[in-house]
Amino acid sequence: MTFSFRPFSGLLFGAALSLACSGPALAQLDLPGATEPDQAGATPSPAAPHKAHHHVVDGAVADRIPTQDTVTGHSIYLNGIAGEMQLDKVDSADKSNVTLKISKLSFAGDKITSQAESCKVDIAPATAITAHDVSQPGTLKSFQTDLAGCAFSFDVMDGAIRVHKLDAVCVFKAADCQADPSGVWGPSPAAFGPDKIAELGRNRAAAENAIRKDYKVLMEKAHKEKGDVKPIAHEQASFSSERAQTCSDYSREGQHGFCDTAFTEARAALLNVRLNGMPSVAADKPKKPKRKKPVMQPAAAPAPEQF
Question: pTM score, two decimals?
Fold first, then answer.
């Protein structure tokens, strides 16, 4: 699965950001008219995870790309533990142009003046930050947004988003805080009970099985067309290493496997969509013409005897 970094669009905010520090390690970014948080510095309680739509039918992953419906209307956290983000839908008559708003956003980071000390920046704009759909055919649903001083884009997985790596960390000088929002934002580990963990395991196994089958088809097609199989093998190896590296940061990943599952299902869906646009190996094989059995002609009736 390839997550490409995309250029950001020039979204503008109607008002300038002003900073109000509520403590040495906590700052809030407000636009005029923004409401104050209920409790400064309070750590948000983990919300119950949205019921993700796992596209598993009879053990096979369906060829559906995860949609924004699995990540809207509830809080998600960087690596399940840091910061907080809430995405909400924006009603629009144009259903083909999906827009989301970031109605809640906070970053956890390190102090600029003392990187050994942690800090937190609560961003509370009067007008919600807008994220526009920039998805391309055959890719994950992708959105990009402009946040003053910290523009970022993200891909949607099932129940989580993955924020692309930025060129540099986000710096909030007035708050004496710098933060890196890149990584997987998803539910808190506290939200996963035994039943949910078991479900994640089943879904991950089904997705891995689908990937193996689709990978085999891709390799067979490359061999048949005498193409180079190295890029296909490299792509698969890159996916495995990228998943391991990214999900190792998710809180208590070894206990629930949520990040691994979301990553694997996204890869399976992408491969399935990719193969749907390709002729199957079986269809490419020329069919041998069937030999027709000779039709036995009925014997001619004997000529009548002449007298």
Answer: 0.71
